[in-house]
Amino acid sequence: MKPPMTRRDALRNLGLFIAGSPLLHSQFIPRDTHQRVPGLDEITSVFEFEPVARAKILRASYDYVTGGVEGEYTLRRNRKGFDWVTLIPHVVGGASSVDLSTEVLGQPMPSPIFISPSSGHQRLHAEGEKDTHRGATAAGVTMIVSYNSSFGTPEIAATAEGPLWQQLYIHRNLDAARERIDQAVESGCLAVCLTVDAQYSSLRERLTHNRHMNPPRSASRRNRRSRRGAFRPQELYRIRPESPDQSWEFLDVLRTWSDLPILVKGLLTAEDATLAVEHGADGIVVSNHGARYLGHTPSTIEVLPEIVDAVGGRIAILVDGGFRRGSDIFKALALGANAVSLGRPPLWGLGAFGATGTQRVLEILQAELALAMASAGCSRIDDIDRGMVMADFP
To answer: What is the DSSP track for 159-171?
Structure first.
């Protein structure tokens, strides 16, 4: 009969197990084989910022920024759309130098790139929109401040000297909307971007799954929500109205609130673009709201040509939706857009490295755009035309 194991025997066996454990062996593996988060100077493309940001922020915050509506078909189509546009290079007699500077709504800009309005930057970084604005200013890019920003427009404007535009929702509350325009004027904003494609709150399945993981709203956030209007907690069919009764005639009212130029954001058809021109808009943003409101819409790049043709150069045209490369921006400019607006990429930079991350995202895209222009034989933005791309949309 085997004698019972003593405490000394048990400790000796435990020591032998630990000595042979792969966990202990891993301590002697060279450091360069360990997985780690890359540094800012090691990142070479916009795509590489997303996993870094994901590793540094809460899952609920990541899903809020990255996710789309329902099954996220439109989110994927926004990226797929760029595969249907081919670049046509002109390699002989090309550009000896490249200048990205342009003008939108009479405002000179170092490049045809904007930061789209998006809410809740403080989910990604403590400085939130203030650091986004710092990064944008360092890269010479105009930021469009979200109506639902973590900080007020005056506070954001005070952090950096770069130009700002102001997004506007109505949410059935004209007093709150008018107050926001007054703040935008006092803060030195140079344009108003009226978002019209948020009639009802959308079904974002990622957020539904994470509803118990979201951080609590601040008091200021709750107050801003309450000013939108008095909605019942549950409306018919459990859908909550945001701006269901918005009309084109509101542009006439908005025009009386300030002298700022007005852009209408959220258009996907030539018909709506024509109506925007007829009702006095100074510009439009071709947008499906970053695939966050209506599922199964076309990508913005595939509807851009017909909208450009309908507008006929009468007003400025911006476009957003899935832009991740400088070549994507070049394609939009070739199809007739005056500028491109970026949603998620600057936020990935913010979540990964703060203001310097946002700045680096924008600089990478500017460099890639310059290279695409040089390869296509374009010295200036005005040299880009439709002959430099071949579009084959389904």
So the answer is: T--S-EEEEE--T
